[in-house]
Specification:
Helix content: 40-55%
CATH architecture of the largest domain: Alpha-Beta Barrel
Number of helices: 22
CATH topology of the largest domain: TIM Barrel
Largest sheet: 7 strands, parallel
Length: 568
Amino acid sequence: MRDFFYTPIYLCVMPDNYAIADQFSLLSKLMDIHQENSFKSKSYSSTAFSIEKLPVQLEQIPRSDIPKLNGIGESSAKKIIELLDTGKLTVLDDLIAKTPQGILEMMQIKGLGPKKICTIWKEMGIESIGELLYACNENRLLLYKGFGEKTQKNVADAITYYLRNQGHFLYAEIIEYATHLQNTFQKEFPSNQATIVGDIARQLPTTDNISLLTDADAALIKTFMLSNGFELLNEENNSAEFNGQEQVRIEVIFSSPISLIKNQFQLNASKEFMNAWINEFTPSLENVKTEEEIFQKAGIHYIPPFLREEPNTIQVAKEKMFNDLIQPSDIKGIIHSHSDWSDGLNTIEAMAKACIQQGFEYLVISDHSKSAFYANGLSEERIKAQHQYIDELNQQFAPFKIFKSIECDILNDGSLDYSSGLLGTFDLVIASIHSNLKMIEEKAMQRIMAAIENPFTRILGHPTGRLLLSREGYPIDHRKVIDACISNKVVIEINAHPRRLDMDWKWINDAQNKGALFSINPDAHSIEGYKDIKYGVLASQKGGLKPSSNLSSFSLAEFEQFLSNYKS
């Protein structure tokens, strides 16, 4: 069967057999996904096969003879005639109308048949390929019949390939390729400069292209790119756009040597920042040797590219340096991690050993709570067993320490997933929403505020539930949430997973100035997930976060004191 688009298709005046067969194949698959009449579904699939094998076009056959065709039943014949006469198939359009767009998109992912998609949608509650990829990263598929480890990996790989062909990328997905491209330019043209600029230089969480600024000859660059398999998409006086096998749009911007740093400065800032700069300063930007020199001429402190977003940063730079922002080396402990007790890959022992090897002082194990059945959430009995196991490991690994935590589901009424007595046995509780995500702001705020006010909540996990490039997250009043967290001494998570980065960096600075405490947490579902900390740090730098305002930057002694203060 040929590939086809999973959206309503209104056939042309003379539809061919392949196009009609595609409609019946899609109808069969959607019926399976919606768990409708299986007999009819098989019948429509058989009809699609029979249509493809016909020696003549259906359009050329008298309508009255269509029901007589081999493999075409009367019900299918009526639908074929409807398609021929109207270009539509009403029953198919109705099914498409009640199918989420993300489910339709899943049908394009290799390895996902209707039965698997039905399980993903109806049992796992997943409605987009971004959510599905995240579920693969959390090993959730392994908990369902028909999904083994190999299948899960194949699905994840297929989704990753699909997303890479959609033209928009996470920072984490593209930075390595951008750096490799920059290094290649510098190696190929050693007497010239090549610098990453734009979205990537500004550490934006997502981007749709790689921008490289160079003073190399435009004709030589063009020849080099074309000879290495890149396609020329567009060409202007000072730039050229290319596309390669990775389906990443690459913008090469050409500059004279005398204007190189000026152009770099301008490309590494938002439009709002540059408009404010132009209104504030008049020094010439030509023939400067570094970006730092531009700020020296303006008489203000250097502003790194990742802070060149808001115009008021210019006023701040008149008074202070930006040398106290959080760095990856400031992270002292792993907070928010999942082990093989729920949906993680590794044992707690292995995760602790990895922390020690990487120089961390403590590990906070935060497996899922019981309502997260899809993630093998912990029952009351399993919690007691896990706590006993952690006590044994702490004797083995001292002075390194493992803390007992839980990522506790915020239920639909805002309550937490366990009784107060059980919640009191944890060192700290991370409260997160994982279910019923389609909420208006009033409902989302009711749930979140109730959880924040719960005396056992110590960290608010991924506050909006967003998944970058696939799910916006539920709407919240950020200012009210931040104020409530400050009043109730609840830490706000900056989830470092590159597909989350939630809370968004735009809210960090004002909240920090009010006294909010954040925590950059990897939400690691494997030892490999510890590496995501760096993406949380990069996002937090854009918000101006300082180590003193970040819980995971606390030393072991400081962290224990923090826990002691809120439990006393």
